[in-house]
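Students often ask why inverse folding is considered easier than folding. One informal answer: many sequences map to the same fold, so there is more than one right answer. In these notes we will look at a single instance of the problem. The structure comes first.
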């Protein structure tokens, strides 16, 4: 029983550069899962650029994404869990962490724009974890790049071998459809948001193909396919599962075109829950005992309900409501009376969940990102390292009477993973590092609303914060003496060098050969 339950689960995230079509694709997948009946029902959780000045608006928009953080549905014999990721790049850290909880990923690329910054960064995270990826080239109903060029670009920019499993026939106004290489049938394009187009079984070498798309296009398709077969070797599922090969599909999410091919192939080839490495040992999903880890904590936007939701990925066994579980970091047993699972627009209390599932646990500050729950075993799942932040500010207390509240607020927000905290060892000042400007606004707003504490930001020009270590103690000491104004500690007490320019960092690396400068916190 447990084996079947785990085998049929597909837990994944859709990632994309903003505007590539992630929301549209998610919506169409939900349509196939019967979770929604009409297109247009899913709101984008994208933070509109116009709203960036007003955090309240952002929060309202994010409210939508809280309930839709995980979307589950059954499709044929499969149980699909889609983990949503924030659309705005200032919340990229959230996305990185979500990627620790998925077993595979679908990357959406805009066919006209190709690989964009955010896609590149997210792919790096996938590569660090050998996450299997499928690429969906979207917006084929628009004029875009030549598909052969695009395949080359994907390989070069994303550093992964690709293998097209569908192939477009023209594009833009002339877009006729896609030939499904995997199933060997033709799908003719009809622009429509609601209707799922009929597929036509054709032998591409027969005159049938000419009847459907005309001789010139039929000849071109045959030539393209021949070229593809020559250039790309046959699809090898194991290479895909190892994260070395990305199958590519073409379509138009807005028109619900090419999406079903993607989904049908996805459920077949994508991995069921995979083994998860912990520091102590590797945990297999089929193990009978429950284990899980918290990968995301979401604040409740309703001020009357202060509690947060901790999102826990079940790594092995079966989670049961009200059963006693060990919160490993705190060394205490906890029971959860109202764990939730998530449907497209609502969440419901559940009695059990299996490896691969995501459960929401109401949280009042007991969880930190990365916390492990087990049936008693002491295990620590390896999370994702923190990356060196890109923006820095000093955080100062703006209300001397509420110093304690401020400290507590900062601590808890850091536990949630909103940003990173460093303490300058020279002047004792607290530095907050983020990946985007928005997070400073989020922190200030939440400190005030949730902890009744006011903070003030002071500018700090830094290029990078890097973790340093060395086996050469005298050299490390010499470095610390020379750079005493630029040394900080992270929350785990590790040494961090605050480089104020690329040049300074480069000089430090040249002058201190035995010091290792790390740009992620795990080394
Ligand atoms: P995102 O979540 O990745 O940010 O992308 P989203 O799905 O919101 O799509 C971004 C824009 O691209 C939307 O237009 C959407 O309608 C459009 N789009 C998505 N898929 C396709 C496609 O296959 N073909 C074409 N032509 N357009 C597509 P928008 O104007 O920003 O929003 P809206 O007013 O349409 O909602």
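Output (designed amino acids):
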């Amino acid at each position: 029983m447990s084996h079947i339950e785990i085998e049929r689960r597909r837990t994944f995230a859709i990632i994309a550069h903003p505007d590539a079509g992630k929301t549209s694709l998610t919506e169409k997948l939900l349509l196939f899962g019967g979770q929604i009946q009409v297109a247009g029902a899913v709101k984008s959780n994208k933070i509109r650029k116009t709203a960036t000045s007003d955090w309240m608006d952002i929060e309202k928009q994010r409210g939508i994404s809280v309930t839709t953080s995980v979307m589950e549905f059954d499709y044929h014999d499969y149980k699909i869990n889609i983990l949503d990721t924030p659309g705005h790049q200032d919340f990229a850290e959230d996305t990185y962490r979500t990627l620790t909880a998925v077993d595979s990923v679908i990357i959406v690329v805009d066919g006209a724009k190709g690989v964009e910054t955010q896609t590149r960064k997210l792919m790096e995270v996938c590569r660090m974890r050998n996450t299997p990826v499928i690429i969906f080239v979207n917006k084929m109903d628009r004029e875009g790049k030549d598909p052969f060029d695009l395949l080359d670009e994907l390989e070069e920019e994303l550093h992964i071998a690709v293998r097209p499993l569908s192939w477009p026939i023209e594009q833009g106004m002339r877009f006729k459809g896609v030939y499904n290489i995997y199933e060997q049938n033709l799908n003719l394009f009809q622009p429509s948001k609601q209707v799922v187009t009929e597929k036509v079984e054709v032998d591409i070498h027969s005159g049938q193909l000419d009847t459907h798309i005309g001789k010139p296009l039929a000849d071109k398709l045959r030539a393209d396919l021949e070229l593809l077969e020559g250039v790309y070797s046959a699809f090898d599922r194991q290479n895909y599962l190892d994260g070395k090969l990305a199958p590519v599909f073409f379509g138009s999410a807005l028109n619900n075109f090419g999406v079903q091919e993607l989904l049908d192939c996805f459920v077949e080839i994508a991995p069921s829950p995979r083994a998860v490495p912990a520091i102590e040992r590797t945990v297999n999903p089929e193990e009978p005992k429950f284990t899980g880890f918290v990968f995301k904590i979401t604040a409740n936007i309703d001020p009357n309900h202060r509690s947060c939701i901790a999102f826990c990925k079940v790594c092995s066994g079966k989670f049961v409501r009200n059963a006693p579980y060990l919160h490993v970091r705190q060394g205490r047993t906890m029971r959860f009376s109202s764990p939730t699972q998530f449907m497209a627009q609502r969440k419901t209390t559940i009695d059990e969940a299996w490896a691969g599932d995501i459960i929401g646990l109401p949280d009042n500050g007991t969880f930190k990102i990365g916390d492990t729950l087990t049936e008693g075993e002491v295990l620590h799942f390896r999370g994702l390292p923190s990356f060196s932040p890109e923006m820095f500010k000093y955080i100062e207390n703006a209300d001397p009477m509420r110093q304690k509240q401020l400290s507590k607020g900062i601590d808890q927000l850091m536990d949630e993973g909103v940003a990173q905290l460093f303490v300058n060892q020279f002047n004792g000042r607290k530095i907050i590092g983020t990946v985007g400007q928005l997070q400073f606004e989020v922190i200030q707003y939440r400190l005030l609303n949730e902890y009744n504490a006011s903070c003030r930001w002071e500018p700090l020009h830094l290029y990078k914060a890097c973790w340093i270590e060395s086996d050469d103690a005298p050299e490390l000491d010499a470095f610390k003496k020379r750079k005493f104004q630029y040394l900080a500690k992270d929350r785990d007490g590790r040494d961090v060098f605050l480089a104020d320019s690329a040049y300074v960092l480069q000089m430090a690396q040249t002058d201190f050969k035995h010091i290792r400068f790390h740009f992620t916190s795990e080394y």
